[in-house]
Design goal:
This protein is mostly helical. It is built from 4 helices and no strands.
């Protein structure tokens, strides 16, 4: 129950959100697009194309509603997927000069070029 509006959220209240309305429209458009694609590109008979379109729309609706329900349900443990770069150590806060000093220390050619041009170490 939210204290601000005194609204009780039930188990199925996620079906009546603005996001659910957008999902419904997107699923109808997706199913219709697949039906037209089957009819025009693959020359499927109209009942078969319509059936494929309805099945696609319902599958999209089920997947979208499942996703929305998982996102809106509080207290549910969520699977946190780590990006492959998350395992790296945090970046050091070195300045450009620090990087130049490190590079010159590890590269003798760059070190000798820095001495010739008078670059700061």
């Amino acid at each position: 129950m939210t204290a601000q509006h005194s609204v009780r959220y039930g188990r199925w209240s996620f079906l009546f959100t603005m996001a659910s309305m957008v999902v419904m429209v997107n699923c109808v458009l997706g199913g219709a697009t697949i039906a037209l694609l089957c009819d025009l590109a693959f020359k499927a008979p109209l009942p078969a194309a319509a059936g494929i379109g309805v099945a696609t729309g319902l599958a999209l609706l089920a997947l979208s509603m499942r996703y929305e329900h998982r996102r809106l349900t509080p207290g549910r443990p969520r699977l946190v997927r780590r990006h492959r770069h998350d395992r790296r150590q945090p970046r050091s806060r070195l300045t450009v000069r620090d990087h130049a000093v490190r590079y010159c220390a590890s590269n003798p050619v760059a070190a000798s070029a820095g001495r010739r041009t008078g670059a700061a170490r």
